[in-house]
Amino acid sequence: MARPESLKLVLNTIAANVAATMPGVEAAAVSIDRTLSSYGCNSIDRADIVWRTLDDLQLDISVVEFSGVADIRGLAELLCRYLEAP
Amino acid sequence: MTEIGIEKLHVYAGLAAIDTAELFHGRGLDLERMDNIQQVRRSIGLGFEDPVTNAVAAARPIVDMLGDRKEAIEVLITSSESGIDYSKSIASYVHKYLGLGHRCRLLEVKQACYAATGALQLAAGYLASGLSPEAKVLVIATDVALVDARASYAEPATGFGAAAMLLGDQPEILRLDGGAFGMHSYEIMDSARPTPEADIADVDRSLFAYLDCLSRSFADYCSRVTSADYTSTFDQLCLHTPFAGLVKAAHRKMMRESGVSDPAAIAADFARRIEPSLVYPRQVGNLCSGSLYLALASLIDNRPDDAPARVGLFSYGSGCSAEFFSGVIDAASHAALRPFTLREQLARRTPLSFDQYTELLHANLAAIVPARDREIELEPYQQFLPRQRGPLLALRRVSGFHRHYEWI
């Protein structure tokens, strides 16, 4: 289970990048219980958002690790795991 | 060190094409997503065409130009995701119909959209070794499309055809920067062709892997070329082009990683260094391992001047394997490409309505399905043949699994 502060940082970063990528979407409206597609993101948008988030958090994660990610919660939990890794 | 590279390059992009808008309307796809793929039209095969006919169509103008000097071709490599036999190579048929000499190695290579680049680099090493002076290598990337409505938005982006490259020590098209390359490979199931009837793809996973491999293969390139910088080392860039929208996203990522985040600056750089390479791919669709070389031809034909330019090239094949390498083009490149009149070839393709396209689909989806015996009638396709054309190779029958072709 991710630490609350890690989850908050990751979610805020994802939300900021969704807002920066999708016109009309406010960062405050991005919910962990939804998918990127539900905000109108196409495949390029989703890739942009994830890569920008990885850059912002300075994380280097193998593409293979994203295979099971189905929604924003899954993405956030994956990023937290790497953020908190020793 | 002897200069090695691409001496001749020709692309065959089919005889017919359907506009992206026509396909979107016919399938009821969301028109707003056309901006994402940035495709204008795609090439469509006719029922007598297959990876052998495509390869021959791409290579024949090069071989004809060589005349008797074609005997110097001592390696023929076909690169394909559209194999026609688990053992017998496409190259074996191509060798026959190009009339190449017996003193020749025949190979077929496979690693999705990367394989032709792997073949090119291995051939370049062979040629640079000097083991066989004045030898030439012919590499042909050749594929057919196996998409229909099941492919959703991948259907409008899929191409058809072949790219043929003659490699040697008189490189007019592209002088390779010897030893300047970076590689990145790993196992991932992003897209594949597990049967001869359909492709499978996880779009998100494939995009991620493409972008990941671009960054990492370029980093490996920089480990060999320590002064390399994405923003300044390359006057032009050619990237494997599944669809133009992905190339735009890839360039945006690389610019950000290089410290350039201003959207206007990124857009201007894209327009200057990459846009010329996308003109032909937007007209043809994803040509699989020939895609990068269609982009190279597009760059040479469409850039605003013929000054010497260093080109950064990125090849990516699902599964996956990727390479970033570089070379130099100049006025000789344009002069060497001009006789093949690629722009005019693309304009001559017969435009298809959506109904005509769907009528052709049944035969096209069976192009590489194994059949012990088959006859192919030409009459249904006569209406799609351009009025102006040279001799075409056509698959006429399969007998005991042996494929028989005729010039029409």
Description:
Chain A is an all-alpha fold and 86 residues long. Chain A contains three helices and no strands. Chain A is 53% helix and 0% strand. Chain A is globular and about 40 Å long. Chain A starts with a helix and ends with a helix. Chain B is an alpha+beta fold. Chain B has a single domain (5-407), classed as 3-Layer(aba) Sandwich (Peroxisomal Thiolase, Chain A, domain 1), CATH 3.40.47. Chain B contains 13 helices and 17 strands. Chain B has helices at 20-27, 34-37, 51-66, 90-98, 115-129, 203-224, 244-257, 263-273, 281-284, 291-302, 331-337, 342-348, 354-365; strands spanning 5-12, 16-19, 41-44, 73-79, 105-109, 136-143, 161-168, 174-185, 191-195, 198-201, 236-239, 309-317, 321-329, 350-351, 374-375, 393-399, 402-407. In chain B, the strands form four sheets. A nine-stranded mixed beta sheet of chain B has the order 5-4-6-7-1-8-13-12-11, with helices on both faces. Chain B has a three-stranded mixed beta sheet with strand order 3-2-14. In chain B, strands 15-16-17 form a three-stranded antiparallel beta sheet, covered by helices on one side. Chain B starts with a strand and ends with a strand. The mean pLDDT of chain B is 96. Chain A binds chain B through residues 42-44, 46-48, 50-52, 55, 62-64, 66-67, and chain B through 33, 36, 186, 188, 203-205, 207-209, 211-212, 245-246, 248-249, 252-253, 256-257.
Number of helices of chain A: 3
CATH architectural type of chain B:
3-Layer(aba) Sandwich
Q: Provide the CATH top-level class of chain B.
A: Alpha Beta
The percent range for helix content of chain A is 40-55%
Order of secondary-structure elements of chain A: HHH
Uncertain ranges of chain B: none
Count of individual domains of chain B: 1
Strand content of chain B: 25-35%
Terminal Cα separation of chain B, in Å?
A: 45 Å
The CATH topology of chain B is given as Peroxisomal Thiolase, Chain A, domain 1
Mean pLDDT of chain B: 96
Oligomer: heterodimer
Radius of gyration of chain A: 12 Å
Instruction: Let me know the number of strands of chain A.
Output: 0
The side-by-side strand order for the widest beta sheet of chain B comes to 5-4-6-7-1-8-13-12-11
Which structural class matches the secondary elements of chain A?
mainly alpha
Low-confidence stretches of chain A: none
Largest sheet entry of chain B: 9 strands, mixed
Taken from the alpha-carbon principal axes, the silhouette of chain A is globular
- Please summarize the sheet with the most strands of chain A: none
Give the full name of the CATH homologous superfamily of chain B. Thiolase/Chalcone synthase
